[in-house]
């Protein structure tokens, strides 16, 4: 069941901005935050950035199409400012996470490059791609996004590309998933939070993770 | 560890969920939003929804898709009447993340590569309705188009080349019969496909579903009647096996 705890929940001063990438199922995210009683807005233009305290970049689309969309909507620079200068929490989902890095084998565009790494095409010969379906996420260290979510919990994946190499800088908390081979399915590094799976489509575990993101630093 | 998907496959006609036998004689089941809610409460792995009139009527009910998505915290795939990219975008905006292309494949296969380029392969499913004639030959038929058994492999490989992310096979001769999946057909297609493959039609019991899952790792298991009816008299009772796998 969807949690209906809007009345009992302590009101927090957060406004989550959900980037409208034009291609994504932003409704799924806003439906969950409405149920949770968390204030949120869909970010369509630069003026929205005045109001928000956290940002989510949702994930449907190809690498180039999402980057181009952000530029066309004139929010690319605003997002960069929010992440780099304001250092506010930012959650990337699937392709929305992949654009945190320098580049992707999926496209020719340059990513934000906030974290020095490359998105690669996953290609274990043991399995079929795209990786579509439910898989478990294992994390070593206690981390904020997975607060009250057991290691080994299942989430919904829908992707062909991903991150395999650890980041060059330390102090990152990783979650791993195995699909023919291990890849990085979640991470927390400074104000950057990324998940390769779709929490908005992962029933209870996903709702809990999105709730955790809304409560960060509170 | 990856686990195979158990996928309720629902047919919609005139905004109601119906169930067919061999894709004929639709039987009224209920309101789509209610039925999706029930599957959501039971934490279904994914849900596939086909509107069987949308293609011919040239009409997709986006409001209904929106209402469905509002009630689903699980992956949703929609098929029916998708003829261009604009339509695909509207479906994603409603809160679904995958689309299935069926009849459009017969006059515009290239839509597959267009969707794959713009939204990524993972968003794009090709659904083929395969039937079996009296001589046990498989074929696909749509209006005047017939794809014979010898050509089905070539047709599927072409779709994979165009960038489709998943092949969904509806076994017309098994639909609604609850006589067990067509293992012969599954084995043929499973062998030559390199991408995710889901089969629907014929699931007779949970044991049957788990048996196919074991024989064909990573296969998606579409289920209709078994999750909709209960008992010999086929009373409508939406059900889904809970807690048989990791959560």
Describe the structure in your own words:
- The complex is a heterodimer of chains A (218) and B (247).
- Chain A contains five helices and twelve strands.
- Chain A has 218 residues and is of the alpha/beta class.
- Chain A has a single domain (16-215), classed as Class I glutamine amidotransferase (GATase) domain (Rossmann fold, 3-Layer(aba) Sandwich), CATH 3.40.50.
- Mean pLDDT of chain A is 92; it is low at 4-8.
- Chain B has one domain: Aldolase class I (TIM Barrel, Alpha-Beta Barrel), CATH 3.20.20.70.
- In chain B, 32% of the residues lie in helices and 28% in strands.
- Chain B has helices at residues 32-41, 54-57, 62-70, 85-93, 111-119, 149-161, 183-192, 206-215, 225-228; strands at residues 6-13, 16-21, 24-30, 47-51, 76-79, 98-101, 124-132, 138-142, 145-148, 166-171, 197-200, 220-223, 229-230, 235-236.
- The relative contact order of chain B is 0.15.
- The model of chain B has no long low-confidence stretch (mean pLDDT 95).
- The chains are: A alpha/beta (218), B alpha/beta (247).
- Chain A binds chain B through residues 1-2, 22-28, 31-32, 60-62, 65, 95, 106, 127-136, 152-154, 156, 158-160, 178-179, 198, 200-207, and chain B through 1-5, 40-41, 43, 45-46, 66, 69-70, 72-76, 89, 92-98, 117-123, 165-166, 193-197, 218, 220, 246-247.
Keywords:
A: 218 residues, alpha/beta, Rossmann fold, 3-stranded mixed β-sheet, 12 strands, 22% helix, B: alpha/beta, globular
In short:
The complex is a heterodimer of chains A (218) and B (247). Chain A is an alpha/beta fold.
């Amino acid at each position: 069941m969807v949690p209906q705890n809007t009345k009992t929940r302590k009101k927090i001063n957060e406004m989550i901005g959900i980037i409208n990438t034009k291609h994504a199922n932003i409704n799924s995210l806003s439906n969950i935050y409405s149920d949770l009683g968390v204030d949120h807005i869909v970010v369509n233009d630069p003026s929205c950035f005045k109001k928000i305290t956290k940002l989510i970049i949702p994930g449907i689309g190809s690498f180039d199409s999402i980057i181009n969309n952000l530029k066309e909507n004139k929010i690319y620079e605003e997002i960069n400012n929010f992440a780099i200068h304001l250092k506010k929490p930012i959650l990337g989902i699937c392709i929305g996470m992949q654009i945190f890095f320098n580049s992707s084998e999926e496209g020719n565009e340059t990513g934000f490059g906030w974290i020095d790494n490359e998105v690669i095409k996953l290609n274990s010969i043991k399995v079929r791609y795209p990786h579509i379906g439910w898989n478990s996420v294992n994390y070593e260290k206690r981390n904020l996004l997975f607060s009250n979510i057991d290691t080994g919990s299942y989430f919904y994946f829908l992707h062909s590309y991903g991150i395999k190499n650890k980041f060059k800088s330390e102090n990152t908390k990783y979650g791993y998933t195995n699909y023919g081979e291990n890849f990085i399915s979640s991470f927390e590094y400074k104000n950057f939070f990324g998940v390769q799976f779709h929490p908005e489509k992962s029933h209870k575990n996903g709702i809990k993770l999105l709730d955790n993101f809304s409560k960060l630093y509170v | 560890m990856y686990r195979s998907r158990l996928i309720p496959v629902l047919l919609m006609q005139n905004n109601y969920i119906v169930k067919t036998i061999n894709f004929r004689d639709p039987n009224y089941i209920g309101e789509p939003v209610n039925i999706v809610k029930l599957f959501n409460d039971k934490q279904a792995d994914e849900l596939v929804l086909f509107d069987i009139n949308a293609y011919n009527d040239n009409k997709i009910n986006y409001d209904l898709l929106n209402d469905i998505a509002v009630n689903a915290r699980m992956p949703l795939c929609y098929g029916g009447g998708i003829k261009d990219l604009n339509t695909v975008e509207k479906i994603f905006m409603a809160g679904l993340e995958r689309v299935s292309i069926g009849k459009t494949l017969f006059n515009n296969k290239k839509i597959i590569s267009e969707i794959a380029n713009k939204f990524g392969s993972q968003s794009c499913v090709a659904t083929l309705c395969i039937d079996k004639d009296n001589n046990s030959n498989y074929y696909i038929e749509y209006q005047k188009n017939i794809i014979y058994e010898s050509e089905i492999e070539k047709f599927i490989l072409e779709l994979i080349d165009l960038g489709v992310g998943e092949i969904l096979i509806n076994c017309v001769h098994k639909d609604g019969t609850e006589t067990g999946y067509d293992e012969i057909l599954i084995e043929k297609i499973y062998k030559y496909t390199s991408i995710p493959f889901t089969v629907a039609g014929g699931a007779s019991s949970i044991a049957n579903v788990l048996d196919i899952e074991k024989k064909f790792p990573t296969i998606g298991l579409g289920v209709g009647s078994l999750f909709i009816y209960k008992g010999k008299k086929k009373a409508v009772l939406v059900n889904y096996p809970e807690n048989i796998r990791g959560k």
